[in-house]
Amino acid sequence: MIAWLIRRLLVATGVTVVVVALVFFLVNAVGDPAVATLGPNAGPEQIADFERKNGLDEPVLQQFASYLGVVPCVRDASPVAAEGGHCGLLQGDFGESFSHNEPVSTVIAHRLPRTLLLGVVAMIFELIFGLGVGILAAVRRNTWIDTGLMALAFLGISLPSFVTGPLFLSWFGFRFGWFPLGGYGVDFWDHVYHSILPAFTLAIIGAATYARVMRGELVETLRSDFVRTAAAKGLPPSRVVGHAIRNALLPVVTLFGLSLPLLVAGAIITEKIFGWPGMGSLAIESIVNLDAPTVMGVVVVFAIAVQVGNLLADVAVALLDPRVRVEKSG
Amino acid sequence: MHRRYERLGCAALALLGAAGSIAFAFFLPDPPEAPRWVGAGAQTPQVGGTFVFHHEANVRSLDPHVAYDELSGMAIRLMFDGLLDYDHESNLVPSLAEAMPAVSEDGRTFRFRLRRGVRFHPMAGHPEGRELVAEDVRWSMLRLMSQDVGSPGYPFYASIEGADAYHEGNADDVAGIRVIDRYTIELQLKEADQTFLNAMAMPFAYPVPRENYEHWGDEVKFHPVGTGPFVFEAWERGVQLTFVRNERYWREKPGPERMLYLENIGRELAAQRFRNGDIDSIHRQSPSDYRFFKTSEAWRPYMVEEPRGSTYGLGFNCEMAPFDDVHVRRAIAFALDREGWSRARAGRLLPASQLLPPSIPGYDPELPTRQVFDLERAREEMRLAGHPDGLPEPITVWITGQDDTSRQYGELLQSDLARIGIDVRLRFVSFAVYLTESGKPNTVPAFFTGWNLDFPDPSNFLFLFDQKSIHPEHSENRSFYRNPEVDRLLAEGKSERDRERRLGLYRQANEIVARDAPWAFLYYTLTMELWQPYVRNYDPHPVWSEDYREVWLDLPRERVARSLAGVGGPVPARFYPMGALR
Question: For a tag on chain B, would you pick the N or C end, based on fewer CB atoms within 10 A?
Answer without folding.
Answer: N
